[in-house]
Amino acid sequence: EDQVTQSPEALRLQEGESSSLNCSYTVSGLRGLFWYRQDPGKGPEFLFTLYSAGEEKEKERLKATLTKKESFLHITAPKPEDSATYLCAVPQFLSGNTPLVFGKGTRLSVIA
Amino acid sequence: EPEVTQTPSHQVTQMGQEVILRCVPISNHLYFYWYRQILGQKVEFLVSFYNNEISEKSEIFDDQFSVERPDGSNFTLKIRSTKLEDSAMYFCASDWQGEADTQYFGPGTRLTVL
Questions:
Q1: Which end of chain B has less Cβ packing within 10 Å, N or C?
Q2: Chain B nearest CA to A23, separation (Å)
Q3: What domain range includes position A61?
Q4: CB count, 10 Å around CB of A18?
């Protein structure tokens, strides 16, 4: 069973059309949830870390929120340059140094 | 802004050959990781490294793989005898204090095994 599930797999928006991406996770004792942006052929670029339910973080047109079972990445009035794959990840272990477990990502296309 | 760098950006090799992928983590970071991403698939963990030894490795990281920190700045991933299925993007990442700290990723090396 996947620990991190992202939906939708792909999303096509018109420029200016706001929407949300979802990341649900099954790990218990969440130590943090990470959002990354990945452009084709590039490495994941860090966006946000959320540590506790109710926490919100914003960066330009993006806002990430966290509940006990899922996180949302809200994109407000997107532009074509926001087109990318957005990845969600959680720590694999409950303590100590830990690798990240990634979801499959949501591929966002913003059309002018 | 400090960043993780990786070389080469693209490596083409013949099946059975050895390859070494290189990474320079962010300078004050102490924890280092290798991940890979097969085209169209998830980013997958390979190995983590701290204090000059492997701290964790996945099932993918078999005897064909090894990691090393040959000096104070470089971190390398060696694949001894490449297979077709090793073709993927390989990403190095680092963080400062482990403990679910934010990991920063390099731009990746695209490995193509022919």
A1: N
A2: 14
A3: 4-111
A4: 11
